[in-house]
Amino acid sequence: MDFTGQTVVVTGAGGGFGEGIAERFARFGASVVAVDMRAEAVEAVSQRIAAAGGKAIGVTADVTSDADMGKVAQAALDAFGGVDVVVNNAGITHKNRPMLEIDEAMYDRVFAVNVKSIYLSARHFVPLMRKAGGGCFVNICSTAGVRPRPGLTWYNGSKGAAIITSRSMAAELAPEGIRVNIVNPVMGETGMLADLLPGEDSAEVRARIVSTIPLGRMSQPRDIANAVTFLASDESDLITGACLEVDGGRCV
């Protein structure tokens, strides 16, 4: 795969899946706009990419803010002249617990980060892609939106909404040469893991989760990065509206 000459925006790039995705695109020649709320984290990622010979800038932004997403789009234009690929990776969850124990503020925040962010990215990046004659979104959703686990009801709902939103975008934007695909990771060893787990983070609890994954391990950033770069590449130019479960067989 070769992304030389292309600009890729990755949200939630300050760690976990987003960091792995940003670094993989850079290795394939892309100019990367790494976005995260954590200024120090996203700056470290962009500097690491640059030190390895890649091109990247870090932008501190809240993906639930229209003004901030506008700032990201402008930063991409100023630095690299356009946007070819957007990876909506930023996401959060509530703590794994009975659904009525999640307060309204947490519910609103989960849906804002996991669903509204897709709307805001479309508002600011679809016009740029239209001017360029095409583009690609890859939205990181979750197996939770396909095969939900108890204790994560509102998170599951947000990911289900993100999946159907992404597929509707794919249908609407296809005539304009804009593709939209979805990657659904199984539970991974990222900063969200402690909240996703049913109970305390322990070897026993992790083993119980792994026992539900036929291939016998949780996802890693490299697994998700491999799937994302494929879906964003010319090798998948007839694929849109697809949900790729990167889940070790969890959803079979």
Q: How would you describe this structure to a colleague?
A:
The chain is an alpha/beta fold and 252 residues long. The protein has one domain: Rossmann fold, CATH 3.40.50.720. The protein contains eight helices and seven strands; from the N terminus they run βαβαβαβαβαβαααβ. The mean pLDDT is 95.
Inertia-based shape: globular
Helix content: 40-55%
Q: What integer value in Å does the Rg equal? A: 17 Å
What is the quaternary state of this protein? single chain
Text of the CATH class: Alpha Beta
Give the terminus-to-terminus CA distance: 29 Å
Write the layout of secondary structure elements.
Elements: E1 7-11, H1 16-27, E2 31-36, H2 39-51, E3 55-60, H3 66-80, E4 85-88, H4 104-132, E5 135-140, H5 153-173, E6 178-185, H6 193-196, H7 203-210, H8 221-232, E7 243-246
Parallel strand pairs: 1-2, 1-4, 2-3, 4-5, 5-6, 6-7
List keywords for this structure.
Rossmann fold, alpha/beta, 8 helices, 45% helix, 252 residues, seven-stranded parallel sheet
Q: Briefly, what is this?
A:
With 252 residues, the protein is α/β, with parallel strands linked by helices. The chain contains 8 helices and 7 strands. 45% of the residues lie in helices and 15% in strands.
